[in-house]
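Q: Hi! First time asking for a complex rather than a single chain. Here are the components, and I think there are two in total. Is that enough to go on?
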Amino acid sequence: MSEGSTDQGAGLGSTTLAQVAIVVKDIDASAKRWADVLGMAVPNIITVAPGSEVEMTYRGAPSDAQAKLAFFSLGQVQLELIEPMGGQSTWQEALDKNGESVHHLAFWVEGMQKSVDFLAGHGVPMIQRGDMGANGQYAYFDAENPLGVVLELLERERETRAEPR
Amino acid sequence: MSEGSTDQGAGLGSTTLAQVAIVVKDIDASAKRWADVLGMAVPNIITVAPGSEVEMTYRGAPSDAQAKLAFFSLGQVQLELIEPMGGQSTWQEALDKNGESVHHLAFWVEGMQKSVDFLAGHGVPMIQRGDMGANGQYAYFDAENPLGVVLELLERERETRAEPR
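A: Yes, that's all I need. Here is the structure of the assembled complex.
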């Protein structure tokens, strides 16, 4: 086993896991249940901006989807709960297909487009993106078939908006 | 958000995530794909002892199930791949039901039985256990309904063999 590192010469751009996310039907109820089981405080529920305000695209087309989020800090990793609020998104697709279940594993990267290109070359296409805050962005990658789970990349300071290849 | 801690006065016994595990059909192929995508070396594939040698129980009955495992270190958290090798287990059940997908989130605890009792009181029953190495043990908990994922607890030095409540 090798140690994790955020600076990889090869690969998707990081080997330090940042988030594990679960799609849920009712985030208030789920956040309460997780808080009880973990022995932690119930986190704030955040409503993200609608897709039209964050240049969101889903499978190549603009989407106005929206979601509620909650985060628990489990050491280095955040446990993220996601309640889709309608619209076309990988969140809604996963909830409809699999019910409440783990949706993605997330990693922070820099220069996201080169990670997008790398993953496309490994059969892992980008399926959703959006801006995040003033300068950041996120993107999801359909890795369910080769890897058993969706991947997410997160970038604090975007150079360019990530585009599918 | 509060910081993670391994010493919790309440809760399952830890808030530091230790492992994210994915059940797979062919661990050699999956480990190679993950290694390529992460830019890491292909890890060793470990075959665990059969259930009859580790006091394994599954849903209350002895089981002789067995699995192959592989681990990637992603910082604090290990990504674990699990290929069930037949026999009655939560690994096989999950692969049959959901295909290749995230199976569990794992935490290290001490004095596992009190965590078992706590989780049972929160509607999260223990469904599988086994000894691990000379002195350790693991146990799985059916949290799919309330939490969207199976939980695992790991203990390095067992006081007693964990029993369902």
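A: The two ends of chain A are 32 Å apart (CA to CA). Let me know if you'd like any chain examined more closely.
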